[in-house]
């Protein structure tokens, strides 16, 4: 959802899938893999440059954490996937960090 790509996207094939696409991009290239529709929420014309930069950094940090959760929830072996109660707790923490 956050990449704007489907598992059946044309870029996936051979040895690349959505899971690997995100995993190899983290954390340095999170802005490159995030859906371009998210960019509108990252910058705000009315904010001072320092505020805008801080906000963009905070959103990028949150996206990195959300993508990390997605990676942990989509590992190939279902028994190695993150427990849903941990996921819910982490997502709430990310929300608090973003809004707080």
In short:
This protein has helices at residues 18-25, 30-33, 39-42, 49-73, 84-99.
- Specify Rg, calculated over alpha carbons: 15 Å
The overall number of domains is 1
Unreliable spans are none
In percent terms, what proportion of residues is strand? under 5%
Quaternary organisation: single chain
- Mean pLDDT rating: 87
Tell me the series of helices and strands, N- to C-terminal.
HHHHH
Q: How many strand elements?
A: 0
Number of helices: 5
Would you tell me the structural class of the helices and strands?
Answer: mainly alpha
Helix content: 55-70%
Q: How would you sum up the major sheet?
A: none
What separation lies between the terminal Cα atoms?
24 Å
* Shape call: flat
How would you describe this structure to a colleague?
The protein is an all-alpha fold. The protein has one domain. 57% of the residues lie in helices and 0% in strands. It has five helices and no strands. The longest helix is centred in the middle third of the chain and has 25 residues. The protein starts with 17 loop residues before the first helix and ends with a helix. The mean pLDDT is 87. InterPro entries: LRR_receptor-like_kinase. One of its GO terms (cellular component) is membrane.
